[in-house]
Structures are given as structure tokens and as C-alpha cells.
Design brief:
It is a single chain. By secondary structure, this protein is α/β, with parallel strands linked by helices. 54% of the residues lie in helices and 12% in strands. The protein is built from 7 helices and 5 strands. A 5-stranded parallel β-sheet has the order 2-1-3-4-5, sandwiched between helices. The longest helix is centred in the last third of the chain and has 50 residues.
């Protein structure tokens, strides 16, 4: 049984996540072991553009805009809380998706963050790691579908634009009795 099948991922998942569709993922966690475990799970999902941070402040200084941020709410003494970082960063980067992966089991906090726009709040555990992997796979597929639908929309607009130009030229030529 493969790593991917352990998480119940769609059979076509791997072919969906191609080089040009791979998201940029930031991991913010004070714990080196968790950063590495999450990185391993992401690589198993064919996601390779991964950047790790121990402090949310390091993300603010990054010039690279992430598609997904996986963060712990408890970032250690002297650091901004993950929830505070989420609220401020989400305001300036509304397209970035957030998944909290934290030891904090406060249900009210989890509900509040999800209502504020977090994609999910997962408690760190073995089961939590499985859920995190599944949620990332779902999120990546959703983002790929959004990108593909935007491309299709642009193509349709261009096609309509060309058809519109041809139609207008035909009307002008007809009105001038050239046709």
C-alpha cells in the first residue's frame, strides 16, 4: 500500500498536480520536527515549492507570495500568535489559504479562525497529520480548478473578443455596401 493510498487521496491526484500547478507552501512552526514531517507529507503530494519558517515575522519579510500557509497557533514566547498573524496577513493577502496545525485544542479559537477565513484548524496528532494531508490535497485540487477555470474564462473572452471584432467589421462593411 502506497503512502498516498494511506491518506485516501483521489487516484488522479498525482496527474492533477503538475509542475505549473504546484502551489507555493509556507510552513510556520517553532518545532523543527513538525516542520520536517509536514514537509515530507507535502513532498508525498508532489508539492515541492516549500518554505519553512520559525517565526511569522520571517514570512512578512518574504518577497514570495504563498498559496497556502500551514501554521501553528503557538509560535513560542516573544513571537506573534499564529491567529494574530493570520488576521493581519489575510487582510493584505486574501487569496492565501491558511491551515492551522496546532496543539491548542481550544474549540472556540478553531471556530473563530475558520469563521474568519481559515481553511481548517487541525489538532497535532497522528490522526491530525492524516487529516492535514487530505485537506492539503483537497485545497490544492480546488486551487488548480480555480486556475483552470480562470484560464478557460480568459480564453472564452478572447474568443468572444475576436468574434465580436469580426462581427463589427462585417456590420461596417455591410453598411458601407462593400460586402
Amino acid at each position: 500500500m502506497s503512502f498516498r493510498s494511506n491518506f485516501g487521496l483521489p487516484k488522479n491526484y498525482e496527474s492533477t498536480v503538475k509542475n505549473d500547478n504546484r502551489p507555493i507552501v509556507f510552513i510556520i512552526d517553532k518545532n523543527h520536527s513538525y516542520r520536517e514531517i509536514i514537509k515530507t507529507c507535502l513532498k508525498a503530494l508532489n508539492i515541492t515549492n516549500i518554505h519553512t519558517f520559525t517565526k511569522s515575522e520571517e514570512v512578512i519579510n518574504s518577497k514570495l507570495p504563498p498559496d497556502i500557509i500551514i501554521l501553528d497557533n503557538e509560535l513560542g514566547q516573544g513571537n506573534t500568535m499564529g491567529s494574530d498573524f493570520f488576521i493581519s496577513y489575510k487582510f493584505t493577502h486574501p487569496d492565501t489559504k491558511f491551515i492551522f496545525f496546532s496543539v491548542n485544542t481550544n474549540l472556540a479559537l478553531a471556530v473563530s479562525l475558520i469563521r474568519s477565513g481559515a481553511f481548517d484548524y487541525i489538532v497535532k496528532s497522528k490522526e491530525g497529520l492524516n487529516r492535514l494531508t487530505k485537506r492539503i490535497a483537497i485545497l490544492v485540487e480546488l486551487q488548480i480548478k480555480q486556475k483552470n477555470s480562470r484560464k478557460a474564462f480568459r480564453t472564452a473572452l478572447l474568443s468572444l473578443g475576436m468574434a465580436g471584432i469580426v462581427f463589427i467589421v462585417a456590420i461596417i462593411l455591410y453598411n458601407n455596401q462593400i460586402i
